[in-house]
Amino acid sequence: xxxxxxxxxxxxxEKITFIIVLITVIGFLTGCGTPDEKSADxxxxxxxxxxxxxxxxxxxxxxxxxxxSIKSSLSYDxxxxxxxxxxxxxxxxxxxxxxxxxxxxxxCIVLAPVTxxxxxxxxxEAKDAGIPVIIVDRMVNVADHDLYTAWVGSDFGREGKxxxxxxxxxxxxxxxPSDDIHVLDIQGTLGATAQIGRTNxxxxxxxxxxxxxxxxxxxxxxxxxxxxxxxxxxKKHDNxxxxxxxxxxxxxxxxxxxxxxxxxxxxDIKNGEVxxxxxxxxxSGLSKVLEGKIALDVECNPLQGEKxxxxxxxxxxxxxxEKYTYVEERVFSAVDHIDRVSVDGISYSVTVLTKxxxxxxxx
Length: 363
Ligand code: GZL
Prior knowledge:
- By secondary structure, this protein is α/β, with parallel strands linked by helices.
- It folds into three domains: 2-32; 37-153 and 303-326, 3-Layer(aba) Sandwich (Rossmann fold), CATH 3.40.50; 156-300 and 330-359, Response regulator (Rossmann fold, 3-Layer(aba) Sandwich), CATH 3.40.50.2300.
- The protein is built from twelve helices and 15 strands.
- It binds beta-D-galactofuranose (GZL).
- Beta-D-galactofuranose binds next to helix 3 and strand 9.
- The site of beta-D-galactofuranose has 14 residues, from helix 3 and strand 9.
């Protein structure tokens, strides 16, 4: 039995509590939430930028790190709704994805193009739909540069030149005659900007410095393909003493094939070692640098997410922005007697890799 006075109070309190709980539950269930949450949610929803991201594939450690970087920067909590598509190295899948993004009326398209050619039609469709396209990593070869709004990536031609100027300096410092250099170029995906730039580096340097460019063979930046290619080349040529691998996964595959064939990989060309030069400076490659099995690893930075985020926000808000943005990159070596190389009048430092540096790397 309830005391009348107290009972009335208790009953009233219970009713008020019940009503508050009921309002909160209804609000939660209907997504209304409290005014703050609702208005905050509305602000959030209104500000969400929808982005269609066509990634070319997942062929290498570099590509996986690149995808992770872009996904973490273009995240929901960061104000984005990201529609992701992996094209598995096929341009027609990328073109289909872009057309899907156009139908979905995304605010912006991010494209990591597998190769440079064949983008005019679909980029014109995106432009006609009024959707800005940010090209990332590699480049598209189009006559009208207004078909894309901005680009974020690396200077692959410079990467190739840095690697070759380092090899030239190595030969000078160690008194190795140019005609004692017999280079195999294990190329990336033919037609990719990275492949074009890096291949140009070794072709022009071999011509300029008198190196013997024994062969050039594509391996699509893939480890298993590079191992097969290296095995084939060892049967075809008996004088290869430098292997110029256009990414780290290829370098790891080439090293496996060389060691299985009884070769010693290292920097001491004079004493019969096979020198490996690589690109990307992913952990897989740098761990081989630390072992002395890759002599030089020219970084190609995949962590482009933040720069892409900055460009998209400026494009969407109508602010000034740079059309071309380059990411920062370093050069790592197992060799301690070459600390700088000069390319086109610019001096680049070469970092002798240590375990401490490797342990701190982000990818
Ligand atoms: C370079 C990038 C290349 C990397 C490879 O920016 O396009 O593709 O060097 C990757 O590892 O597969």
